[in-house]
Structures are given as structure tokens and as C-alpha cells.
Amino acid sequence: MTGGAESEQIDPLHRRATMLKFLSSTIGIIFLIGLIVVIGLFALVF
To answer: TM segments (predicted)?
Structure first.
């Protein structure tokens, strides 16, 4: 019985950690794409 309760307590923390990893990876990809777009616009302008 106690083992199940412990796993229930650990599960939301693990889920939150995976969500944070997913969010950070998507933010990093969007940031990189934004940088490339800005550099491309500067290259076109100048």
C-alpha cells in the first residue's frame, strides 16, 4: 500500500520535469529560428 502512495507522489514531479525539459527545448528551438530570421533580414537589408 505504501509503495503505491510513494509512486503517486513521485509521478507528478517526474511529469513536471519532463514538461520543463520539453518547454525549454521548444523555447530554444524558437529562439534559434528567431535568430536565423533576424540575421537573414539584416543580410537582406545591408
So the answer is: 22-45
